[in-house]
TrEMBL record:
SUPFAM superfamilies given in the database record: CRAL/TRIO domain (SSF52087), CRAL/TRIO N-terminal domain (SSF46938)
UniProt-listed Pfam families: CRAL_TRIO
Source species: Bemisia tabaci
GO cellular component: membrane
GO MF assignments: phosphatidylinositol bisphosphate binding
Name the record gives this protein: CRAL-TRIO domain-containing protein
Domain CRAL-TRIO, first and last residues per copy: 77-239
Superkingdom: Eukaryota
Amino acid sequence: MSDSENPEPARVAEMVESIREWLFKQPHLPHIEDREVLKKFLVNCKFRLQQTKSKMENYYSARTGFPAVFQERDPCAPEMRLAARATPFFPLPRSTPKGRKVVICKLDCDPDEFIPSDYMKRMFMVFDVMFCEEASARLDYEVVVDFRGFSFRHFLKLTTVARTFMSLVENVMPATLKGVHYVHVPPFIDKVAEFFKMLVKPKLRERFLIHKDLEAFYKVIGDQDILPSDLGGKEASIDELCDAYQRKIESYKKWFEEEENIRSNEDLRPPSSTNSWLMGTEGSFKRLTVD
């Protein structure tokens, strides 16, 4: 790691204060006093000030621009509990040998129970809790998609939110996606993989890996034992781990309530800070989620 990615504590404190002062000059953005929160953004942007400012701009603007995803987030709501049960999405208790979190994703419910907008809302609630709880220097993560039970009907419904989801992952979340691993793949997986690759920047496309051999997948992860038992590991089952993480998310109910209004106020946005990324994605999502 270069010195620019591992600055001295005094320099880090200076950069955090610089970000805090910058936020207070932005009339449309929330004024964040918690320096640990500011530091987390800075660390996850590799100590690059301009990138940190852009990430925070996108993060708090998305909370306003995508109300179906980032507003009225009650983890105890029936639809959120149904989304957790029907479409598991959660990080594993232990990280890889490289220090990366592993997020398990599974879609094997009745397609009629799959509500893409609820699924995406809960996904970003999981990401926010992960960001809150991450104690290490960086929040790097890999996603493992277990395709058992996945049908083409699931895929068709998923396409209605996929573009917005991938855009939010890339531009909003203060974390780095290091890999997407497809296991127990169906015959049409190549089309699914190509579809998602088209939605991300070129540098991420090579991180989408199809594993038709689980032994090869275990080598890439680095430690088979950290995986759920139904993926060949020594942790509890996917359903048990998902239930446990849902309880963790529900313990954040008050936090989500407090964060409800910590977002951009677009009425106060100065003309000079027009968010071109937000304007380019918001409209398409609003049209797609009406169906």
